[in-house]
Specification:
single chain, 6-stranded antiparallel β-sheet, Phosphorylase Kinase, domain 1, Transferase(Phosphotransferase), domain 1, 3-stranded antiparallel β-sheet, alpha+beta, flat, 16% strand, 11 helices
Length: 355
């Protein structure tokens, strides 16, 4: 993170971290809770809503108002068109705070690249790789049909949902390099539209190939029809070659229609016995973490209940001289407040004290 901050200073950016404090409230709605990420152009915080809304937590992306490149504006233009659709965060607010522009969107989980680097998962199964590719194609279909390209398709820009129930849903993020396209115009000025669209799809194929081998995206070259260079993909090589060929067939009329590409990915799984109904590897890890946390909470609760039981029994002993009755009640009530017990059980304990 220090390197990222230094990079910002080298580019002449103000230090957003030093001027935006934890606990600071933006637009009387968003309370900053923690820092999520620092980039060369923007900084992202987690914020909690102070108002009653459907979403309790948000990601707040801040950018210096006088930044030469309107990176955040790109995000706004794209998300105002497709935000909230499948695979895209919902946009809630775009405004100004101090000397910064800010964007409030859905809070999402970690990206696929970070999951593989920071967890016990060292390699994804073929079913997971294929599912990432399919959901990526679904996202690109929506994006391209809406009239935008992405420009940076890689595993760092594919993230999972924030809630446990959403951890199997993937989202496309970071539209800083997005370009607006108009597939209905075939003038010389817009003839590079197909190239931009195909670049996104080639990048997605490269991401699938890199995830299959558990290497970085930049370690995989485009196919360019040279099958001999990809012997390590022997099990899925046939589908890779076909996928690459299908990309070259895309024309103005077929932009956004990637059903054939999805079919090839499904065939990649089927021909190798991969079950696409299996959950992602990180879903197993998340479930195990939830189980561990639940067991820990049960142990803590059991210990507190035992302590409370001893205290209650002590005060129910006749002629106990440990203190006035009101003080005893306050002590018990204080102990009860720390317990996540059922209300009927708490009421029963208080009734017993009156006997």
């Amino acid at each position: 993170m220090l390197k990222q901050q230094l990079a910002m200073q080298q580019f002449g950016q103000p230090n957003i971290i030093s001027s935006i404090k934890i606990g600071e409230i933006i637009e009387s709605t968003y309370k900053i809770e923690r820092l999520l990420a620092v980039g060369q152009q923007s900084t992202i915080f987690q914020a909690r809503s102070l108002r009653s809304t459907d979403a309790n937590y948000f990601a707040l992306k801040l950018e210096y108002i006088n930044l030469g490149q309107a990176i955040l504006q790109n995000e706004v233009v794209v998300l105002q068109r497709i935000g909230g659709r499948e695979h895209f965060a919902q946009i809630y607010k775009y405004g100004l705070h101090k000397q910064y522009k800010f964007l409030a969107i859905d809070l999402l989980g970690p990206n696929v690249s970070d999951i593989l680097r920071q967890t016990q998962i060292r390699k994804l199964s073929l079913s997971s790789v294929v599912k990432i590719g399919i959901q990526g194609l679904e996202a690109l279909s929506t994006l391209h049909k809406a009239g935008f390209t992405h420009g940076q398709i890689n595993s760092e820009n594919i993230v999972i949902g924030y809630q446990k129930e959403q951890s199997g849903n993937l989202y496309l993020i970071d539209f800083a390099q997005s370009q607006q396209i108009n597939s209905r115009k075939k003038s010389a000025k817009t003839i590079n539209i197909l190239q931009l669209v195909q670049n996104d799809l080639h990048s997605l194929l490269r991401m699938v190939m890199s995830l299959y081998l558990s290497v970085n995206d930049d370690q995989v070259n485009n196919m360019n029809g040279q099958e001999a260079q990809f012997n390590e993909y022997d099990e899925i090589l046939h589908e890779i070659v076909q996928f690459d060929a299908e990309i070259s067939k895309i024309d103005f009329e077929s932009i956004g229609d990637y059903s054939q590409l999805q079919f090839l990915l499904r065939m990649m799984a089927e021909s190798n016995g991969a079950n696409l109904s299996n959950p992602f590897e990180w879903q197993f890890e998340i479930n195990q973490q939830a189980i561990n946390q639940m067991e820990q909470q049960k142990r803590i609760l059991k210990e507190r209940q035992n302590q409370l039981s001893l205290l209650v029994n002590k005060f129910k002993i006749p002629n106990n001289q440990s203190g006035p009755k009101e003080d005893q009640k306050k002590a018990i009530q204080f102990a009860l407040q720390a317990l996540p017990q059922r209300p009927d059980q708490i009421t029963l304990d208080l009734i017993l004290l009156e006997v």
